[in-house]
Write a structure and sequence with these properties.
The protein is α/β, with parallel strands linked by helices and 197 residues long. It has a domain at 14-149: Rossmann fold. It is built from five helices and twelve strands. It has a six-stranded parallel β-sheet with strand order 5-2-6-7-1-8, sandwiched between helices. The structure holds zinc ion. Zinc ion is lined by residues 153, 155-156, 158, 184-185, 187-188. Substrate binds at residues 173-176, 181.
């Protein structure tokens, strides 16, 4: 479990920012971990704001919703840049589904952290092909803390790091279809990809 260097962030005049990334496959508990950290910040009376890409319309418009329905309110935005205006006065900025943001995300997170904001971003590190997903590699590079959470392979019970998709569509963004995804270990992911060909 991730232990924060500190939760409270001093007074506004001398607060210090940093960047945390929570990454992993689908069903790995990324959003649950994001919510856990944000709840702790809220208890510490931090001003918290949560953003998600407007593209993610799976559930409700203003809730960050994880698969176990443990929801907190969030603001859907179109561009990473929008966070500078909306999140600049916060102590903590949470970001869900970070992989769907544009490539400006890392730079925006750095700017927020430089101005004293604690940034916590959760997202898929790999797409269904096992390739690094969108702005995540850059974001992980500039983060102080990177936590990779693991799912369990539904085929063999091993630790899973891949999001295997049981469909032939080549579209990277396929939302609202969690039923066609499985968390898989490297071995079972490769076996599954072979079988799809
Ligand atoms: Zn497996």
């Amino acid at each position: 479990m991730f232990i924060e260097p500190r939760v409270g962030n001093g007074n506004h005049a001398n607060r210090r920012g940093w960047v945390e990334v929570i990454c992993g496959s689908m069903f790995s508990g990324k959003t649950e971990e994001l919510i856990r950290r944000l709840n702790r910040a809220t208890i510490a009376k931090q001003k918290v704001e949560i953003f998600k890409p407007a593209i993610d319309k799976r559930y409700h418009d203003i809730d960050v919703v994880s698969h176990n329905a443990n929801a907190i309110r969030s603001t859907p935005i179109d561009f990473a840049q929008d966070m500078l205006l909306l999140g600049g006065s916060c102590d903590v900025v949470g970001i869900d589904e970070a992989q769907f943001f544009d490539n400006g995300l890392a730079e925006v997170c750095v700017k927020l952290a430089n101005s004293g904001v604690r940034v916590i971003a959760a997202g898929l590190d790999m797409d269904y092909l096992g390739k690094p997903f969108g702005p995540m590699p850059d974001l992980m590079a500039v983060a102080e803390y990177v936590t990779k959470v693991h799912a369990i392979c539904v085929q063999c019970g091993d630790i899973a790091t891949y999001s295997f998709r049981n469909a032939l569509s080549e579209q990277q963004v396929l939302l609202g279809e969690t039923e066609s995804y499985e968390a898989r270990c490297r071995h079972c992911f490769l076996e599954g990809r072979k079988a799809l060909r």
